[in-house]
Write a structure and sequence with these properties.
The protein is an all-alpha fold. The protein has helices spanning 11-41, 45-49, 59-86, 90-94, 102-114, 116-127, 136-156, 162-196, 199-213, 220-237, 241-262, 277-300. It is globular, with a radius of gyration of 20 Å.
Length: 313
Amino acid sequence: MTQEPRSRIHESGQFFVLIAVCIGLMILGVLIGAGIAVVLYGSNILSQVSTFNPAIPHVVATIWILQITSTTMPLFAAPVIFARFIVKEPVAYLKPKLSIPISLFALVFAVMFFSMPFMEFLISFNQKLTLPQALSGLEHWLREKEQQAQNETQLLLQMKTFGSMLFTLLEVGLLTAIAEEFLFRGCMQTIFTRWTKSYHWGIWIAAIIFSAFHMQFFGFLPRMMLGVGFGYFVYYSGSIWTSVWAHFLNNGTAVVLTYLFQRKIITFDPDSNHYNYIIAVFSLIFTVFLFFIYQKVALSKKQLQPHNGKGLG
């Protein structure tokens, strides 16, 4: 297979170009979504959306329209446009390789499952963090934004029918996973890996930006650690689809459990945080162990040939 020629744009320039493309497409998406909502539901609907009141007709539908046009679609289109037409290295930046051993997908599933107790601990720990007294105003603002994001999420996850659950699973689970992984584990991770000449730095910087992008300080640590895990899945497999699968499992599990709880099929509230310190420790240890197995299997299948020296393999 012929190797793609390296882009002549320095990685610092690539990063800012990618950000600019994302912002431009998101602004365009907001305008398109707002236009669609106004045509469908009238001009008043835009002022009613901020109430997050499901009793107001078409509020939920409008939020879904804006979610898809201003977030999901731009986050998918931006990395594709960037990789295909700006740096002209779609394979290197998007990593769309499909020839992946099924054992790697099974290991990803195992990692996501057995890491759940540790992630529950990390979520609880992060939510209890407080800023210094001098930054109390900032903390209050951050918690308000956090609550606003939770209100929107709870509204979108109100699933009254099996069909609505499938739609939410498709949008929140699959399409969001594909879009965000193409952007963060595809383009951004490649940019920072090349820039720093270290795949570790590339993975961690992309994960930090991934978590910061969601603008939820009190969920920053668990989301960052998810990003780190997704990054290593991609690096060792050489394929974006391993992290898409992991991302889908994370989001999709939340959707399905929420639906089952709402329908009173299960009594466990997925929004509650219950953890045991000992179980969380064993969860972390076993998760790390599974990652080593994943690395060994990926390399043995020649998914990624390690390089010598500069931390690129």
